[in-house]
Design goal:
The chain is of the alpha/beta class and 346 residues long. It folds into 2 domains: 2-147 and 312-342, Medium-chain alcohol dehydrogenases, catalytic domain (Quinone Oxidoreductase, Chain A, domain 1, Alpha-Beta Complex); 152-289, Rossmann fold (3-Layer(aba) Sandwich), CATH 3.40.50. The protein has 11 helices and 17 strands. The strands form 4 sheets. Strands 3, 4, 5, 8, 9, 16 and 17 form a 7-stranded mixed β-sheet that branches. A 6-stranded parallel β-sheet has the order 12-11-10-13-14-15, with helices on both faces. It has a two-stranded antiparallel ribbon with strand order 1-2. Helix 6 (204-209) links the parallel strand 11 and strand 12 (214-217). The protein is globular, with a radius of gyration of 20 Å. The chain binds NADP nicotinamide-adenine-dinucleotide phosphate (NAP) and zinc ion.
């Protein structure tokens, strides 16, 4: 099969065409013929080696996979060849307690496509059938390819127990990124009051169109950000902070109300932060680490999108052979919306 991959860590130019053996399905697996994938921060972290879990080369990126079932392995009843599918980004061993509960992200052996195993920049991918989701109708493959990773994380964050329902306040860091924009759109539809924290205040109007009730300029320093978020919420603080920048965890804890939560899923600005431990326990702040999502999270989130007519923000579509150029554009960050890579074919 054809794929775009890399033999060494480095700049976008390390992404080159590869010819690899076709994957073979084991019991319970299907082979998916990929129609489209999208560029995620994870791809850049992997290509540059920052997020390397110790992969062998060559490596094929792509955690978002949309396509059709090409081959069925033994024990994959219920699916048929040619059927359109979306693949959940993460899967576990399938046998441990967490996996049996459907909580595969907590499996000690969890794997993500494009991270420990080859992903959607390849023409074919081997996938456990239990990771497949039937997509809602009315969405193109390019639109669906924008979603699995960012949607799962946004969906799970907005459903932590500290969230009580419509009217709750949520502060979203890195608001103009993939997860941020998705959270704004979801949150608006859920009746939540969304505050976008962004280093790009020039995008103020766009972020409001996407669902932000207020936009806070995060480049003015954390003290000002905490003050503004508190003022916006009548001095109480938010119910939830979606923490994508990592280094700001301490001030995220400072802007949460009593019993609120900070969901930590990214480290865009760095992986160390200083927190006020006393404030954390005196105000019963919950700090929750989160990665990927389970199949059922993705499936529920798709149903919600379809029921509310929410479409992903599709930035641009390039051919998969232009992956290096797509990464250059992604890193320039002058795009808003996801960059999708399309495989040749119908
Ligand atoms: N745990 C998981 O499973 C999981 C899943 C998805 C993503 N993530 C992580 O969550 C974070 C956000 O993901 P994403 O998909 O939204 O990423 P993205 O699309 O690359 O987000 C880029 C945006 O992040 C903001 N940003 C703030 N500080 C930044 C910095 N120091 N460097 C670069 N960008 C910065 C900028 O938005 P503003 O200009 O609006 O500030 C930028 O436009 C990443 O760290 C990603 O690795 C984790
Ligand atoms: Zn397991």
């Amino acid at each position: 099969m054809r794929a775009i991959g890399f033999h060494r860590f480095g700049p976008p130019e390390v992404l080159v065409p590869l010819e690899l053996p076709d994957p073979v399905p084991g019991p319970g697996d299907v082979i998916v013929r990929v129609a489209a994938t999208s560029v995620n921060r994870l791809d850049v972290l992997m290509r540059t080696g920052i997020g390397d879990p110790g992969i062998p080369f060559p490596h094929v990126l792509g955690c978002d996979i949309v396509g059709t079932v090409a081959t069925l392995g033994p024990g994959t009843d219920g699916y048929s060849e040619g059927e359109r599918v979306v693949v959940n980004t993460c899967y576990g061993c399938g046998a441990c307690g967490a996996c049996r509960r459907g909580d595969e992200v907590r499996c000690p052996e969890w794997k993500s496509f494009g991270l420990q195993v080859h992903g959607g920049y390849g023409e074919l991918v081997r996938v456990p059938a239990r990771s497949l989701v039937r997509p809602p109708g009315g969405y193109s493959s390019e639109e669906l390819a924008c979603l699995p990773m960012v949607l799962s994380v946004a969906w799970r964050s907005l459903h932590v127990p500290a969230m009580q329902g419509p009217g709750d306040w949520v502060a979203v860091r890195a608001a103009s990124g993939g997860v941020g924009l998705t959270a704004l759109r979801l949150g608006q539809q859920m009746g939540l009051r969304m505050i976008a924290l962004t280093r790009s205040p020039a995008r103020n109007a766009r972020l409001q169109e996407m669902g932000a009730e207020a936009v806070v300029d995060a480049s003015r320093g954390e003290e000002a950000v905490v003050k503004e978020v508190r003022a916006l919420t009548g001095g109480h603080g938010v119910h939830l902070v979606m923490e994508a920048t990592g280094v700001t965890l301490g001030s995220s804890i400072d802007m949460v109300r009593d019993g609120g939560a900070v969901v930590v899923y990214g480290s865009l600005g760095g992986r160390q932060s200083t927190i006020d431990v006393v404030r954390t326990y005196r105000h019963s702040v919950q700090v929750i680490g989160l990665h990927n999502g389970n199949r059922d999270d993705l499936s529920e989130a798709f149903e919600f999108l379809a029921a509310h007519g929410v479409r992903p923000l599709l930035g641009e579509v390039l051919g998969v052979e232009q992956a290096a150029e797509a990464h250059r554009r992604f890193e320039r960050r002058d795009h808003l919306g996801k960059i999708v890579l399309r495989h040749p074919g119908p």
